[in-house]
Design a protein that fits this description.
By secondary structure, the chain is an all-alpha fold. The protein has helices at about 10-35, 40-60, 65-85. It has one domain.
Length: about 90
């Protein structure tokens, strides 16, 4: 979105995170129905997400676009490496 649609980096990252959250929420219902989710762990994760969202919002207001771009790129790179490693069973 940043490059193709010429949106500001802060808008791109928050929109991407929102879409990831929506996808996660949709799939969580399926896993919960199958009994694959421990509600205690989910409660702890939800608290962590709320705290992280609160702190992240405060930091994002002060952060400059190049800094946000570098951090977001690093997070995406780490996520991509983890996905590739898992795909090959490592």
């Amino acid at each position: 979105m940043d490059l193709a649609m010429k949106l500001p980096m802060k808008v791109s990252t928050t929109t991407s995170n929102f879409m990831i959250g929506g996808t996660t929420a949709a799939s969580a219902g399926i896993y919960f129905a199958r009994g694959d989710i421990n509600p205690f762990i989910v409660a702890l994760v939800a608290i962590g997400i709320l705290i992280g969202a609160f702190v992240g919002t405060r930091l994002l207001v002060r952060a400059r676009n190049p800094t946000v771009r570098k951090i977001f790129a690093a997070v995406l790179a780490v996520t991509a490496v983890e996905m590739v490693l898992r795909a090959f069973g490592m």
